[in-house]
Amino acid sequence: MLKTILTLITLLTLTPCIAAESSDNWRKVSSENIVVIALPQGNVFLELAPTFAPKHVARFKQLVRDGFYDNEHFYRVIDGFVAQAGPKDGSAKDKKVPPLLIEEEIITPENWSFTLVQNKDMFAPQTGFKQGFSVGYSAKENKAWLLHCPGVIAMARESAPNTGTSHFYITIGQATRYLDRIMTIFGRVILGMEHVQAIKRTAVSEGQPEVDSAQYTQIKSVNIMADLPKEEQFTILVENTDNALYAKKITQKRLRDNPFFYKKQPPILDICQSTIKTKVM
Amino acid sequence: MLKTILTLITLLTLTPCIAAESSDNWRKVSSENIVVIALPQGNVFLELAPTFAPKHVARFKQLVRDGFYDNEHFYRVIDGFVAQAGPKDGSAKDKKVPPLLIEEEIITPENWSFTLVQNKDMFAPQTGFKQGFSVGYSAKENKAWLLHCPGVIAMARESAPNTGTSHFYITIGQATRYLDRIMTIFGRVILGMEHVQAIKRTAVSEGQPEVDSAQYTQIKSVNIMADLPKEEQFTILVENTDNALYAKKITQKRLRDNPFFYKKQPPILDICQSTIKTKVM
Fold this sequence. Notes:
The structure is a homodimer of 281-residue chains.
Chain A: H1 7-13, E1 26-28, E2 34-39, E3 42-48, H2 54-65, E4 73-77, E5 82-86, H3 92-95, E6 106-107, E7 115-119, E8 126-130, E9 133-138, E10 143-146, E11 152-155, E12 168-171, E13 184-191, H4 193-197, E14 221-224, E15 236-239, H5 244-255, E16 278-280
Antiparallel strand pairs in A: 1-15, 2-3, 2-14, 3-13, 4-5, 5-12, 6-10, 7-8, 8-9, 9-10, 11-12, 11-13, 15-16
């Protein structure tokens, strides 16, 4: 006897009509494009998004390879919002990194395509997936941009747009979509999100004792997967979002054709609630 | 030098135009209406919602007072989705609790009012706050319902609607709004959500080793705040969402009138990203 809405997840993710597992269903993520953040509670794996934010990806990889983030802390962590890390504000280390031009959206070439998830999203004309990332798209503007769904990594900045340097945040709560197109997202967590969720919160509710900075979660190290010793490397596959199979899966999710949905729900998919599966080998 | 998008949260939550702090800004939650779930990592405090789900609140309080959940486990925990707890499926303890009629929405009386947050939400004609809870509202149907924002507690069930008994889930990721109006939400976390987020995940990605059930997070105890020894009780205040001051705050949030928003964003508020503050005394 299963008294669980969670059978649901199986029902929504199993897609019996789709052809059997094939290599086309999964995409191997290049080890050059995987960042491994080692935290005391476990390792977090991110896929970088050079198509959308090439300069930020290059910057981040360089800083990672310089050991820039090793032993730094998550110093602003607000439950339901973001976990932010970087060097001490105003320190020599902080100031030596020059600002970057923001990469908040891309101009889409003529034949640009993506897997549509939803029309008339509240924050974007269209949403969908491109290369395993959640995107917004405006055909009128010929522009696409990455979305602030849970688990994306983006560059923090000051008030002016082109002021991001090295401080980054990972989104840990309900999608902060009002930050779309004004921040540079440059990757997303593909494995180990539970370890991000376990980062020590530094902001407390009014009336609660202040959190001692000695308790902040420290980053043990950050590495590019390709740079790790061979025995520590492994293969990460993510669902291939850019083909007809995946598009069909989206359509089936939207239908919710299952007795659990005893009343018909609006045929809407929230792009940020439409997760992409990961598999390790 | 602050290189942080997090100044933002201050900017969005400070509302200098609004009259100084007054008792009307905060609502004291009745200790009869607060559930305290003691987890190894810390205590989680929930406010119950008897206006929306009276029978489920009564059932839950009775089970809590019977010690029903003490020493039970969170046995299905999926990152970004839900943390679900209850007795062993099919056990005598499980089977002795009779099913409840679903309380998925209420019929609103003639003069029913709420604080509007958004028109034409993708899943509801209108969204807003009522008594500190996120609600959907249909004027046409004269109905209101609680929303699956992060941190709500709801009764799990089988496929048929009226099959919920004692198993509950707390939402821990992007709002699962497709479950609105087909599940009974009966409360929400008002303090300690970070401890919910630290509950051990029981579902793993394909290719990862299965999680041993010995690692599941155990509930130490569940109590009604009013039943705790006097020295363990304290006062929890939540923002009063049902007055003109709060409505004004919503309007200001929507405007994003701050240089950080160097490009104008759509004037949209996601109800599930519009958090309500909590203060302890």
